[in-house]
Each structure stands twice: as C-alpha cells, then as structure tokens.
Amino acid sequence: MAISFDKALGVHEDAMRFRGHRAAVLANNLANADTPNYKARDIDFQSALAEKMNPQNKTIELQTTHQSHREAKGLLVDDGGLKYRTPQQPSIDGNTVEEQVEHGQYMENSLAFQASFTFLNSKFKGLIGAIKGE
Q1: How far apart are CA 45 and CA 51, in angstroms?
Q2: Strand locations in 63-112 (E)
Q3: What is the pLDDT of residues 6-33, one digit of tens each?
Q4: Is there a contact between 27 and 113 (Cβ–Cβ < 8 Å)?
Q5: Alpha helices, H only, 1-134
Q6: What CA–CA distances, in Å, run from 105 to 30, 33, 48, 64, 83?
Q7: Is-above-0.90 flag for pTM?
Q8: Does 35 map to a domain?
Q9: Number of domains in the chain
Q10: Residue 24 lies in a domain
C-alpha cells in the first residue's frame, strides 16, 4: 500500500511554502524602509491558503478581432496573493513601510513557520515509525 504524502502531511506543506514566500516579502519591505515612494506589500495568508485548498478557475477569455489572432484560453492570472499594506502613519516621502509593524509581522510569520515545521517533523517521524513497524 502506497503512502499518500498529500493525505499524510495535510495543509502544512503548503503552509510552509506560503510562510517562506511571506518571509521574503516582509524582508523586502524592511530592506526598502528608506526608499522613497516604496509601497509595503504583504501576503494575505488566510486567503492564499484557502485558494490553494479550493482552487478556482482563474482564466481570461480574450476576444479575437482578426482571423490571425490566436486563442488564449486557459491563460492563468496570478498576482501572487500580494496586497499593499495600509500604513497607520504615512511618511512624507510616500514610503508606507513601518519598521515596527514589519518586524512584528516577520516574527509572527517566523513562529508560525517554525510551528508548521515542527508539526511536519512529527508527521515524518510517525511515517518512519509506521514504515519500520514500530
């Protein structure tokens, strides 16, 4: 009998992938804290994970106006789940990065990543135990 990793690991594999991507986005915000007109971005983790669990058809139907135009059915629209962050106190130079908020979000994301990693580690230990017959 084959082991299905999708069933065994559940949502935590995707959660770790999203958390890793979100860490990169938050680090980019912190790196651009002094860049004029930089707009802070973030990933809405809940909606990104819900989209992964319940994928919807995100296609664009293009109208052809000439016989030489090619059909573009199935063109995927993906914004990466990034959204702009609304600052609590905007700066004069147009930068919307608030370092305290970004640091807090980064730490929260790191803790959630570590929790998912620990959970996956215990799942793998359980699978190894099942394979060994323990």
Answers
A1: 10
A2: 75-76, 82-84
A3: 676 777 778 888 899 999 999 999 999 9
A4: no
A5: 5-9, 12-31, 45-53, 99-132
A6: 11, 15, 16, 45, 14
A7: no
A8: yes
A9: 1
A10: yes
